[in-house]
Specification:
Elements lengths: L3 H5 L10 H15 L5 H30 L3 H35 L2
Amino acid sequence: MMNLKKLTRHFPEIAHLSPDEQQQILTRAYLDAFSSDNKMRNWRSNLVSALVMTSLCFIFVLIIRPAVGMSQQTSAILLMLIAFPAYLLLQQRRMIRQIRTSLQKFLP
């Protein structure tokens, strides 16, 4: 599911609670954020993110790379070192934002 100790550092609003309470509230917020009620919204968001990232990569490979005169190997390395980690970081930020929205429902 998720590593609660690592996830807790992203939510300073629950830092004053005991670790057990933090775990309970984060678990409830996570289950609420990724419940079956929100499944279609999450799928749509993931799909749009993947399509945007794929489009940007195609633009880079088909237009920018030839214009700059970059080799195929260099462009592949740049995509692996920049584009993929950026996509993962954006997805993580989106997940934290979704949990934070659900967390507001459960804070006292």
